[in-house]
UniProtKB/TrEMBL annotation:
Domain Calcineurin-like phosphoesterase, first and last residues per copy: 125-243
Domain Purple acid phosphatase N-terminal: 23-114
Superkingdom in the source lineage: Eukaryota
One Pfam family it belongs to: Metallophos
Parts forming coiled coils: none
Keyword Glycoprotein: yes
PANTHER family: ACID PHOSPHATASE TYPE 7, PURPLE ACID PHOSPHATASE
CDD domains: MPP_PAPs
EC number: 3.1.3.2
Record organism: Cryptotermes secundus
Signal sequence region: 1-17
Catalytic activity: a phosphate monoester + H2O = an alcohol + phosphate
Name of this protein: Purple acid phosphatase
Family indicated by similarity: Belongs to the metallophosphoesterase superfamily. Purple acid phosphatase family.
């Protein structure tokens, strides 16, 4: 009985000392313009740098960024480091290959296509909401179609994982891994739904990077001839997070429509 107790203690110590610098949950989004791509990923432990190696036809360029410690809002305080790197001045309608990480560990090799600069170009999009960690029947179809090059971007309009904060953020981690075969190949553009409200939308704000807005809940971007505007109806419902979100979004939208 004593021997068994010692073995259990050793196993617990081994699990608690687990270390990983390997990138996971890789996903893309647009930056400040259609020819900027933001690459995001997570690591269990902090790395000494956040790097994307990329290029047309090979890994010939390098861009660096930053990592941020994200701690779950639950008492268990699961933590991870979320990395952001922006690729600037990309060539229109070109196929780039890339991987991300550091000299402590790299991701698989991925690719993406940049937008066309032609005003007559018609983007091919998949638009959906309410995709959970369980029973995500559309997921394998989306994975296959994205990797066949059928879409230029994804618009996921709210309700992720059910819910990203569940089980101390573990459900969010698993969901981000599930969508990687999609989100690592095309910009995965998002907006929050009611399932993202926990801790003032903290899981959503930390895990996704949308262009041009510090609040992380509303934004706009251009893609070919289309100007997309994403607003959050949740700021009108979850008023416990303050009326400032309502007034800020209204002022921002008014200004955006004038441009």
């Amino acid at each position: 009985m004593v021997l068994r107790f010692v073995v259990i203690l050793c196993c617990i110590k081994l699990i608690s000392s687990f270390v990983s610098y390997q990138p996971e949950q890789v996903h893309l989004s647009y930056g400040g313009n259609p020819y900027e791509i933001v690459v995001m990923w997570s690591t269990t432990n902090q790395t000494n740098e956040s790097v994307v190696e990329y290029g047309i036809g090979g890994l010939i360029k390098q861009a660096t960024g930053l990592s941020t410690l994200f701690v779950s809002g639950d008492n268990e305080t699961r933590s991870q480091y979320i990395h952001r790197v922006t690729l600037l001045q990309l060539t229109p309608r070109s196929k780039y290959v890339y991987h991300c990480g550091s000299d402590q560990g790299w991701s698989d090799l991925f690719w993406f296509m940049t937008s066309s600069d032609e005003s007559t170009w018609t983007p091919q999009l998949a638009i959906f909401g309410d995709l959970g960690n369980e029973n995500a029947r559309s997921l394998p179809h989306l994975q296959e179609e994205v990797q066949r090059g059928m879409y230029d971007a994804i618009l996921h309009v709210g309700d992720f994982a059910y819910d990203m904060d569940s089980e101390n953020g573990l459900i969010g981690d698993e969901f981000m891994k599930q969508i990687q075969p999609i989100s690592a190949y095309v910009p995965y553009m998002t907006c929050p739904g009611n399932h993202e409200e926990a801790y003032n939308f903290s899981n959503y704000r930390a895990r996704f990077n949308m262009p041009g807005n510090s609040e992380g809940l509303w934004y706009s971007f251009n893609m070919g001839p289309v100007h997309f505007i994403s607003v959050s109806t949740e700021v009108y419902y979850f008023l416990e997070y303050g009326l400032k979100l309502v007034t800020k979004q209204y002022a921002w939208l008014e200004q955006d429509l004038q441009v």
